[in-house]
Amino acid sequence: MHKIFSIILTAISLLLVSIPIPPIPSAPRNATPTSLTLLVNGTFTTFDAKNIDGTNYFRFSDLQLALEGVVLQEGELEQILCMAGEAGSPISEHSYNSNMYLNLRQLTDFLGFRVAWVGSRNTIIIDADNSYAPYQIFTAESLPEHIIHQITGSSFHSEAPFDYCHLSYLTITHIDFYGHSRIGNIIVAASIADEVLDIFREIYEYGFPIARVRLIDYYGADDYYSMADNNSVGFNFRVIAGTSTLSRHAWGMAIDINPIQNPFIRGDIIWPVAGAAYVDRTHVRPGMIIPGDVVYRAFTSRGWTWGGHWRVPIDYHHFERR
Questions:
Q1: Is the terminal CB of the chain with fewer CB neighbours within 10 Å at N or C?
Q2: HEC letters along the chain
Q3: How far apart (Å, rounded) are the C-alpha atoms in residues 7 and 5?
Q4: Is 209:142 a contact under the CB 8 Å cutoff?
């Protein structure tokens, strides 16, 4: 009996091998319409995107519109798609209602962009400038014309009681959280420009990590987006939140460092939201500012006040000069 059963099994196996098995149809991809905002170098653009299997896809034409003039010239996007395929990093496409949608994350990864997601505002920040520093750079200059154009109506307003000559444009080098040297730019009052260069040079030489140093205008002069992207910033002509009093940032006399690792706290309010993980100051991690450390000393030894010593609110990322 056992031998007969074995022969039957063998016959069935041979029969199954000889019968072609049709391929299992792939499950249809679920494309859910969603409205997302792209923030590219200070410019906000809202597009109708598609969320496909948990990934954001944007229309080819919309991406061209958002990225043209930043790093892409006319017609270059098509070439990049071909290059990505040839390089073994194809960029996924999806056809929907006769429109071609592209996987945003794959596209930006191939281009070398940095992408940050601000979920509370349904916004994607695309960083098209990811500059490494081949050598140390610490310079101060009057505001260049292109910077004046960039900040006018953004971080600089006509009601400011001073002219552009009150400010200086600084280029500094900093260490990021991966140990790489990066180029950063910050605007401060001209009267403290050299002092600020010395501060950042001291922080750099010690190796303290700073995520990024970009002008607030890169975020549409919006502190919320800047903090959410862990950006360190200086000048921004604005009032203190919830008041009509000008902030020290409005005078170019304040600097914020690593807002995520050093959050703003007022009661139950924590800015940025990701800063909640760093409310416990006894658990010291890279990028946190602690009394007596290099960042604290670099600022306070030159007469700056630290917001981490305030009672209400507590502002661990904030230093200001009087």
A1: N
A2: CHHHHHHHHHHHHHHHHHCCCCCCCCCCCCEEEEEEEEEECCEEEEEEEEEECCEEEEEHHHHHHHHECCCECCCHHHHHHHHHHHCCCCCCEEEECCEEEEEHHHHHHHHCCEEEEEHHHCEEEEECCCCECCCCCCEEEECCHHHHHHHECCCECCCCCCCHHHEEEEEEEEECCCCCEEEEEEEEEHHHHHHHHHHHHHHHHHCCECCEECCHHHHCCCHHHHHHCCEEECCCCCECCCCCCECHHHHCCEEECCCCCCCEEECCEEECHHHHHHCCCCCCCCCCCCCCCHHHHHHHCCCCEEHHHCCCCEECCEEECC
A3: 5
A4: no
Bridge partners, 320 (sequence order): 254, 305
Q: Which amino acid is at 52?
A: I
Which pTM does this prediction carry?
0.85
CATH 3.10.260 domain range(s) in the chain? 31-127
Residues 219-274 pLDDT 10s: 999 999 999 999 999 999 999 877 889 999 999 999 999 999 999 999 999 999 99
Question: Per the omega criterion (within 30 degrees of 0), is the bond before 22 cis?
Answer: no
Choose the CATH number for 31-127 among 3.40.50, 2.60.40, 3.30.420, 3.10.260.
Answer: 3.10.260
Q: Is the model's pLDDT at 198 over the cut of 70?
A: yes
pLDDT digits (tens, 9 = 90+) for 282-293: 999 999 999 999
Q: Which of 253, 186, 249 is closest to 213 using CA atoms?
A: 186
Residues 93, 115: Cα–Cα separation, whole Å: 19
